[in-house]
Design brief:
By secondary structure, the chain is an alpha+beta fold. The protein contains nine helices and seven strands. The strands form two sheets. It has a five-stranded mixed β-sheet with strand order 4-5-3-6-7. A two-stranded antiparallel ribbon has the order 1-2. A hairpin with a 2-residue loop joins β4 and β5.
């Protein structure tokens, strides 16, 4: 056994001894902490010395391992696979070949391949890490931009809604003998609960401390999840339990106000929905529609295959009948919503017109 191999085995034995002593002191320190609520200074000093010694022995062990490997490879560096030429000239057939003879010879040579094995070029094969994280597609969230909103510190919002107006106004003389006509107003005091949307993921403090990029990524994905659920609630919340009473849920169903349209299309129906809003004494300021339906509208052509209103060569925001169009998958295909969104201060009660095309 060489001196290097003896050194290697001795370091292994010393490391085992130090490890056993550290375990003994660990048990002793637990007893001291249990009895005296702290570790004695002598025990702390001995543990520190053992930890330093353990680190030095681990460094010696690593150096000894490298020397042993070097000896196993003939004292040089790491062994390398032989080339085709080296295999050829070292073969017995090549050595016994008589160049003056007429017959040739053949040699079976196993070509060396580069693999992940340590004896090959494996130590040079390293995975390529692409910076960042590949993010899945995220839905563009636009419904919230249609309505006005404000902050609150309460768990509920109280408001008053006018529920009736009897208008008895009429012409009267300058000095009427009878009382002036009396009109009437009725109100309801209502309350809207404040809904909380929340979620979380499990992550250790260590991984978040060591990977700041991961922390920022997780934070962004969680916020996106909240906004996505908020959009779905704002649009189609059922209003029952903890759910928000959504705009589409409260909107008045579409109904043709009485206009006769030949070969009524989706474009016609959206214009009639705007009329329905106007007849309710409001002014429509937006259209929410599924992207599939919006693409179908944009691709509408006349009898000569010309687009009716869209120009593929122009870059412009989606609009129809002068109103901004919000294509979103939060709206089901075949449904739409047209209304006065900006007037819905306490919910979408001033939005009208929806249902299947």
């Amino acid at each position: 056994m060489s001196d290097i191999e003896k050194e290697y085995k001795q370091v292994q034995a010393d490391l085992k001894k130090v490890g056993d002593e550290l375990r003994q002191f660990a048990e002793q320190s637990q007893t001291e902490i249990k009895n005296h609520a702290k570790m004695s200074a002598d025990t702390r000093e001995q543990v520190d010395k053992l930890l330093v010694s353990q680190g030095e022995l681990q460094a010696r062990l690593q150096a000894a391992e490298q020397l042993v490997v070097s000896l196993e490879n003939g004292g040089g560096g790491a062994s390398k696979p032989k080339t085709l030429g080296e295999n050829l000239v070292e073969s017995e057939a090549f050595k016994n070949f008589n160049p003056n003879g007429r017959s040739g010879f053949s040699v079976n040579i196993n070509a060396a391949a580069i693999t992940s094995d340590d004896s090959s070029a494996g130590d040079l094969v390293e995975p390529t890490r692409v910076p960042g994280i590949i993010t899945p597609a995220q839905r563009r969230l636009t419904v919230r931009d249609l309505i006005r909103f404000n902050r609150t510190s309460s768990n509920a919002i109280e408001y008053v809604r006018e529920t009736g107006f009897t208008n008895s106004a009429a012409p009267v003389s300058e000095n009427p003998a009878n009382p002036k006509p009396q009109s009437g107003l009725t109100f309801d005091a209502l309350q809207a609960p404040v809904a909380t949307i929340a979620h979380h993921i499990v992550a250790s403090k260590q991984i978040l401390a060591d990977a700041s990029m991961l922390q920022a990524y997780a934070d962004g994905r969680l916020r996106y999840g909240l906004k996505l659920k908020e959009e779905l609630q704002l649009l189609k919340g059922s209003g029952s339990g903890l759910n928000i009473n959504g705009i589409h849920t409260q909107a008045t169903a579409y109904s043709n106000p009485g206009v006769t349209v030949a070969n009524e299309s989706k474009i016609d129906r959206l214009r009639l929905a705007m009329l329905q809003v106007a007849l309710a004494e409001y002014s429509a300021d937006g259209i929410v529609i599924n992207p599939i339906d919006w693409a179908d509208i944009e691709l509408t052509k006349d009898s000569q295959q010309r687009y009716i209103f869209a120009n593929p060569q122009q870059i412009a925001g989606p609009t129809l009948w002068g109103l901004p169009v919000v294509p979103t998958q939060s709206m089901d295909a075949g449904d739409f919503l047209t209304g006065s969104f900006s007037m819905g201060r306490l919910g979408p009660r001033r939005c009208y017109g929806h249902h299947l095309f």
